[in-house]
TrEMBL record:
Source organism of the structure: Musa troglodytarum
Cellular component terms per the entry's GO annotation: extracellular region
GO biological processes: RNA catabolic process
Lineage: Eukaryota, Viridiplantae, Streptophyta, Embryophyta, Tracheophyta
Family to which this protein belongs: Belongs to the RNase T2 family.
MF GO annotations: ribonuclease T2 activity; RNA binding
Name of the protein described by the UniProt record: Uncharacterized protein
Pfam families: Ribonuclease_T2
Length: 223
């Protein structure tokens, strides 16, 4: 499986149609957000929707505070994230060996264990509007801690010279989500040679509707 997280700064900028809304449960943690634990076969082919999906949000009641902080849905209109969790489970969880509760529990534990924001910060890689980082530098940090089986995905900012923005990090993990492993196949990054680590979208304006939209330079604008 690939454990996948995404950075809200890039999720909410880079295209005039790329709009984010503050979740109905409040502003999430200023950190990478879990996207899914995606299932692949041994050849590297994505495997999904393996069985009829039976999803129950009630089973996740003990995880809700952490889910709202680290697995939030920033799509519009504002929502509580349940539809996103259901989609992740029905698409990938049904192809794993895990129960619904274990799938979400292990994903949240992995997020805390890899702690990408702190890891990048320890190497001087921090969200900023004023600096670009080398893709090879980012890949080197990931490889030194998680091996070669990591994959960096960028959002291409169509409003600012097709600039690459750090968007998602994919880390190969065991089929049961218990540990980071070396995968038999690797994925290629779509990023350019340099990458911008866009600041978290809600830096000062949190009140009101909490709706963000890209400005001419791809910077988030509160509406």
């Amino acid at each position: 499986m690939f454990f996948s997280v995404q950075w809200p700064g890039a999720q909410c900028t880079g295209d005039i149609l790329r709009i984010c809304c503050k979740p109905s449960t409040g502003v999430p943690a200023r950190d990478f957000q879990v996207q899914a634990m995606e299932t692949y076969d041994s050849s590297g082919k994505l495997v999904k929707k393996c069985s009829i999906c039976a999803f129950s949000a009630d089973r996740l009641s003990d995880l809700l505070p952490t889910l709202h902080d680290y697995w939030s849905d920033l799509s519009c209109p504002s929502n509580d994230g349940v539809n996103q969790w259901q989609s992740a489970w029905c698409t990938y969880g049904t192809c794993s060996s895990l129960t619904q509760v274990n799938y979400f529990t292990r994903a949240l534990e992995l997020r805390a264990e890899v702690d990408l924001l702190s890891l990048f910060s320890s190497y001087g890689i921090v969200p900023t509007k004023s600096k670009l980082y080398g893709l090879e530098t980012i890949k080197g940090v990931l490889a030194s801690h998680f091996g070669a089986s990591t994959w960096v995905e960028c959002n291409i900012n169509k409003l600012w010279f097709l600039e690459s923005q750090l968007y998602k990090i994919h880390i190969c993990v065991a089929a049961d989500g218990s540990s980071v492993i070396d995968c038999p196949v690797t994925k290629r990054s779509n990023c350019g040679d340099t990458v911008r680590f866009v600041p978290f979208p809600w830096t000062s304006a949190v009140a009101g509707e909490g709706k963000l939209e890209s400005g001419p330079s791809g910077k988030a604008m509160v509406l």
